[in-house]
Amino acid sequence: MANLNSSEDIDYGILDTLVGYKLRRAQVNIFNDFSEHCSRFGITPGLFGVLSIVERNPGLTQTAIANALGNDRSAMVSVVDRLESMNIVERKPSASDRRSHALFLTPHGEIFYKELVAEVLKHEASFTSLLNEGEKPLIIDMLDRIANHKPAKQ
Amino acid sequence: MANLNSSEDIDYGILDTLVGYKLRRAQVNIFNDFSEHCSRFGITPGLFGVLSIVERNPGLTQTAIANALGNDRSAMVSVVDRLESMNIVERKPSASDRRSHALFLTPHGEIFYKELVAEVLKHEASFTSLLNEGEKPLIIDMLDRIANHKPAKQ
DNA sequence: TTAAATTATTTACATTCTTAACAATTTTAA
DNA sequence: TTAAAATTGTTAAGAATGTAAATAATTTAA
């Protein structure tokens, strides 16, 4: 039975040639799967990014982490509040600058993060299996180029 | 002078190996540039997607367009309202189904869309220049695989 | 012909992102 | 040394986006 107006019949026109559009569709799908995998941890992709930076760079300030992730520092407040309320991260007063907070994983956070990473790697493997030999480093390299491109203001 | 805590000094750990994280960073950057290019048109990436589908598939219903773009049909209402208020798109009563609206570009919308596409292609060329021979079709193919991947629920 | 499904729509809500402002503190420059 | 400028975390407000549930009108299926 022909299903009129099913998505197979749709002409996507220029969208099918735009890297930005394809990036968006891919990103939404992989983020949804990430969220499903990590829902039992109560962790979103954004929270995972913060945790990963804190784990590898203990003692960084909120602003430094925001900059590393391309976020605004004001958005860090509620994120860190949330991670603190989950007893995963703690703010400690910075020795050198009394304005800023140094962030660390709590002992429980260290264990939590290890289990979380195991789940994230399952998710990643599911998507990496779609890529042929050599394609993963290549797509990551291309994505880095796109992420770091700063076109001149016209 | 050594700049402590500058982003070059940060260890991204697992993030540097996650396709989802890299996708996110690339997508945000390319969408921001898209938005800058199209701000004088008042068009966001989301609105451009709808316009592109309407232009190539005149007469489609709102629900069909939402499905094509992976959006919820309730989100289409305000989008179409906005495009109608800009005199770019018009809702016409469907001949076959009095519940639904068929969407078309207005005469002005046709001209508008052509100018818009010219600007979008400038934006696209800026990013495509980052890719070597053969890399654009390859990344689009990989992104399609990632976008269409439906992992089995565990 | 009745029951079930679909369409566009509205409403509400949660997220996320931006922007601007603020007090406390640090840095820079006179 | 001191005054001005910049930075930090924070709060608050607003825009954008996505999701979920409900509704009336209409169509489809039993």
TrEMBL record, chains A, B:
InterPro entries: HTH_MarR-typ (IPR000835), MarR/SlyA-like (IPR039422), WH-like_DNA-bd_sf (IPR036388), WH_DNA-bd_sf (IPR036390). Residues 16-148 form the HTH marR-type domain. Signal peptide: none annotated. GO terms for biological process: response to stress. GO terms for molecular function: DNA binding; DNA-binding transcription factor activity. PROSITE patterns: HTH_MARR_2 (PS50995). It comes from the Bacteria. Keywords: DNA-binding. PANTHER family: MARR FAMILY REGULATORY PROTEIN, TRANSCRIPTIONAL REGULATOR, MARR FAMILY. This is DNA-binding transcriptional regulator, MarR family. The lineage of its organism: Bacteria, Pseudomonadati, Pseudomonadota, Gammaproteobacteria, Oceanospirillales.
